[in-house]
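Box 3.1. Reading complex inputs
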Amino acid sequence: DAGITQSPRHKVTETGTPVTLRCHQTENHRYMYWYRQDPGHGLRLIHYSYGVKDTDKGEVSDGYSVSRSKTEDFLLTLESATSSQTSVYFCAISSGQSSYNEQFFGPGTRLTVL
Amino acid sequence: AQSVAQPEDQVNVAEGNPLTVKCTYSVSGNPYLFWYVQYPNRGLQFLLKYITGDNLVKGSYGFEAEFNKSQTSFHLKKPSALVSDSALYFCAVISGNTGKLIFGQGTTLQVKP
């Protein structure tokens, strides 16, 4: 699993509350990604990072923010959770130091917003 | 717009028979093509990739995929299916221009004994 962990693995929260998901990697990969998985949509990119404090938006970034203050940690924050953000969230890294290599995924976080 | 299509939501095959999971893509620039597999309640596992070179690429667990530039396809194949191959399969592409991975919607493979 390329040394990727995600926390928490499961979370139930209420609409309007902030939520932060953490992705941690142990192998000094430059590129890190946050995706959400929903039935019928595959995985969609939320945000990604290409280095410490270097981040950019993906396909579905509205309502999400990210931060990367250390190489090993990439945080995803839902500023004010909504029911449409109920999903499974996956963190990924790109092998090597290029964004064109295969990506390896963490185990996922199942988030339910009531 | 860049996209990946997996035209079949589900593929059913008998154990021991060959299997094919279809994928077509539309990107600008040279495509970097990938297949991933997801077992229930697990993350995605990398199976194989095409970057350049031989159009037939071999990957994990006996899977292979054929790149066809004229048909913009990258179908996943296996000569003899196993029940344990039953899972959700995703095709994905990185556009040479963006470096971002785009996924198809996934195809559920069901292998019956």
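In summary: Chain A is about 0% helix and 55% strand.
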